Amino acid sequence: MPHSGQSQADLNVEHHVMDSKKDFHHPYTPYAIQESFMETVYQVLEEGNVGILESPTGTGKSLSLICASLTWLRDHKGKAFQQGLDWGEDVSNEPAWIVDQMRARKRRELLRDREEMESRLAEIRAKEKAQHERYLSGASTQKRRKVDAKKDTFNDEEDQFVLEDYDSDGEQLNTSTSGLSSATLALMEKLGMVGGPPKEEEAEVQEEIKIFFCSRTHSQLTQFIGELGRTRFPSAIPPEDPKSEPEPEDIKHLTLGSRKNLCINPAVKKLNSVSSINERCQELQQSSTAKEHKCSFLPNQDNQSLVNNFRDHALATIRDIEDMGALGKEIGICPYYASRAAIKPAEIVTLPYPLLLQKSAREALGLSLKGHVVIIDEAHNLMDAIAGIHSVEISLLQLKKARSQLGGYLQKFRNKLKGKNRVYIAQVVRLIDSLSRYLEAKAHETHPDGTVNEKDLLAGKGVDQINLFKLVKYLQDSKLARKVESYSLHIISTNPEPQPTAARPETASPVLHHVSSLLTALTHPSSEGQLFYNKTSESISLKFQLLDPSPSFQEIVTEARAVVLAGGTMSPMSDFTSHLFPYLPPTKITTLSCGHVIPSANLLAWNLAKGPSGTDFEFTYNRRNDTAMIDDLGRALLNICTIVPDGVVVFFPSYAYLANTITRWSISIPPSQESILSRLRTKKAMFQESKEVTTEAVLAEYAQAIDTGRGGLLLSVVGGKMSEGINFSDRLGRCVIIIGLPFPNAGSAEWKAKLSYIESSYLKSSSSRSPSNTNRTDREKEARASARDFYENACMRAVNQSVGRAIRHRNDYAAIVLVDKRYGRRNILEKLPKWIKENEGLIEGSERGFGTLMSSLGAFFRGKRGS
Fold first, then answer.
1. Which whole number is the average pLDDT over 516-521?
2. Residue 95 and which of 81, 497, 665, 794 are 20 to 30 A apart at CA?
């Protein structure tokens, strides 16, 4: 069995003999690697550790996660229940019948609330089943509460865009409750006279230990929820008769989403951005909002029965995010707020990345991770996701738009704005002007990017006198961004004259929100983040980038009982152990890299160092324009397409290199005078990933070409739209080819800062661990090696993600060709997933000729004919 602190990269889990045959209630007969995976998950949860687990796509990872975690959860709850029956007194001298009576009474007390809820849920399931049967038979179902799509809670007058007075002393909005004593406000809140959803009674529902399952998108969560519906688990409560088998118990599942996903108020839901929906929702709850304009779906003291009804229906049936919205409409209660009542009794809660990783989102939903289990799927990009959530970027064009919109707003409402509103808006204008002047100056410099000195950034007139903390709070409390954006939209809708580009609002988040986010980053400086400027051919922008995701994720790890990171391509894992969990001892981390469910004969992996003409393949920065190498790559592809049937997918290191290669292949080459590109098109129908054409359109044409027997050649980009979340199973991906190693630009300001941060962090931690007389030169060498390893890992994680597009189930087969002599280096080979690097076709330091590959490909696909 895998154990804490033991790397499983070398563990042959396909032949792993388990110490015990734990019943994980898998709906099918699990493969050996699935049993090993489930055993490892169970062990991580039981010991309260962090698990980093890799199981290739097509190996049933989601179902294994469900079976292992819910089996552990029911076991854990069963043990806790048995411990609850022990009242802690010495009853050894009591008669057996008295002990039995006391135990039975204690059991009834512990089960009373639980049985009441289970009874309600069973009744709801029976009703929903009957309704479904009536629907299938053609009978009418119950009527839903109508949601008036025409009802608009917005005023039509321009006064709706005017800011409310801002309290200069308390720095808070002047609502109708301002000036009242705290005791009066508390009494009003108790009576339900203050806006906002009522606070849940703590004693109403008992908190259950639960599993928070997180993935990147709701579509991925929907797939997981579908797998959840396949499973059945015995009740956590053992039967009174020890000889009886426990009865199965339905899973109490809840899925959470943002207001944008769950809002059922038509007037709010139609807003353009997430931030606008959030702000308008909060605005409709304020006591200063007229009663006729408040949201009628918001939970309050009068409709608590609807909230309880929603809670029970949400838990009674396994539902996805769309089902939750439909349930809210049917009952007539806001599903975003009402779903909070179902969190405590739920056993498993599914939610997307942002709702788990952002502390503010967890607090808004009332989520506490204390003592619970956190499982993050598709975790290969977790560190990038954390950095993305805490990073912000704003362009010069956006700053000019914000300035133009603010100017128009001030021109219209200057006389209606009082006191602090005028002061703070003037400060926002000065700040935007300062940021714009900085970027305009940098735009004329030769450097494409660089780090930003905050003093230079805020060098505008009077900016040094601005209290940024107060200004950020003002922007958040006043809803200035949405007011200005809404007014700009109003002007456009009522004015047929074309507006200047800078004055037009964008359909995404209001530009002032970007300004507010940037200010938040400026007011929370830390060694983990850095400001950059970056120029493109079209614009220049400011960016705050989080360099170290570890502190942001540490709070989740500290609160949770156990954390599991799972994915199909988690290799190389050293990034997670060294850079996401540097504060954890090795004994608290368990890693596992599974093999594949396919037979070894269904995969041919090959590292190709030379082309048909003997040209060395080494797609480094210095050789990227080597025409002889590019031509030989084209000839290699021609030969491969001759042997490989159906679909061939080629991943290039960048869009720019793909475009340059296509340009070179379009040139006619002696002696045939026919271009490589035209010759490729005679072999297979050719398609190219593009930023302009949708992925769906390209994939549909590619699949059609394969179905008609022509075959298809799809030219894609590592890290592009085709490299993640796309399924090239069976005939769609009989061969995946990776061209070169897609290293990030180490010369960019951002990567220089990242690598420098890793080196300095390593030196700091090593000096605290090592004796003072340790050779500093050696430590500096180790620090550079650590940074280099991180740099290589970023490249290889992208390669592994692209390679994982092929072979999606047990009977699938494909060839994987890695085109670059550097794939023969040990440090690169070791970073490939276990199921690939163990293939006999990958040889360290290989200088094999191209003919050897062709022979192996021919034999491989001849052996698959008729499969």
1. 86
2. 81
